[in-house]
Amino acid sequence: MSDSVFGTFAFLILITQGFHASTSSVVQFTSSNLNDILANYELVFINFYADWCRFSQILAPIYEEAAVKVVEEFPASNQVVFGKVDCDREAGIAAQYHVSKYPTLKMFRHGSSAKREYRGQRSTDAIANFVREQLKSPIGSVGNLDELGTLDRKKRHIVGYFDSEDSHDYSAVFKKVANVLRDDCSFHAAVGAVSENERVNGNKIIFRPPGDVREDVQFSGSLADFSSLLDWAMDKCVPLVREITFENAEELTEEGLPFLILFHHPDDLETPEKFRKIVAEELTSEKASVNFLIADGIKFTHPLHHLGKSANDLPILAIDSFRHMYLWSRSPRSDIDKPGLLRQFIQDLQSGKLHREFHQGPDPTLPPVDVISDSSNDATGHVPKEPDQDASNDVGHGSPPAAKTDPTSPPESLFRKLAPSRTRYTILRDEL
Known about the structure:
By secondary structure, the chain is α/β, with parallel strands linked by helices.
């Protein structure tokens, strides 16, 4: 028996063992079968639970029923599987995927964890419909190359030109990359005769960035190499500077990186553009250690009050280290794009200078750095906060309140509503 045949046979036995324990449509995942299943299925949906958690107990039959519906509807092998992880028995798996509340529902595409966990309605139909949507192809079919001239110029697009959908370049590489990055880029494919003129030298893939000027960038690597294309596409599709919203604040926080965040008025388009430009020019090397964000300062009033500021002070730049908030003492409107200043602000955080000045006072030879600290002693004093934190402690002793606001009695935090609700989860530790 060849190694490849034996490997396939062994995998089938492993999967069979996963289903054998019961007639359930939900596979019990353990450290012995999880990685193999993730690697061999297009989409894996996992319920991380604990038997003693009442919310997990409520969800279990609902999740089972949703699994039955979806698996019956999509019977093709290696397409979709519903699984569950007992986090008490498989603590290592729970830690690996940063599970901090029960039940947590996570989705995996081609072995990669999706950035967003499922936080929708916990009903059979809602869960089933969510998975159905994830199984739809993210690739738009191009019937005429003229259609590419009408693409939304505000979005990022990746376009592939292929001889056939059966080709390895399309089915085993491009399609998988499109599934992994479906939330970050719009994918399009011109296949067959319609793309013939674009395939003089073979199949090709291009990236079209947002903007009025067409500046297509062609992928120069091997179209047969999934990892290379994924790395290239991620670099193009995931912007250095992202917008923080009510919908993504929790997931951005869960990435665990400090925020360098620009609060701006929605009518102010110039300052955010300056911010994006200087980050791209000077700070790309910091993207693994800092999240560069912009925020609508009119919607997110609570962080402004937390900093002793109001909407009248916009734009405002601050670092949220997940322990303290540090206000940039310069004017973002006039200084944000001056070479070296933002890099120095980040370096002062990383060197501990900002933290030292918080405790010992500012360096007398430099402009002071305003600091806001949460009164709690843990590391949860960042912008999104738990609902039960005392609003009266929102302003620390590092910065006096602005005369036009009352930081000791700020309006209700809009971010608080994004924290995991204790009416839906058993929370092991505060996430926000």
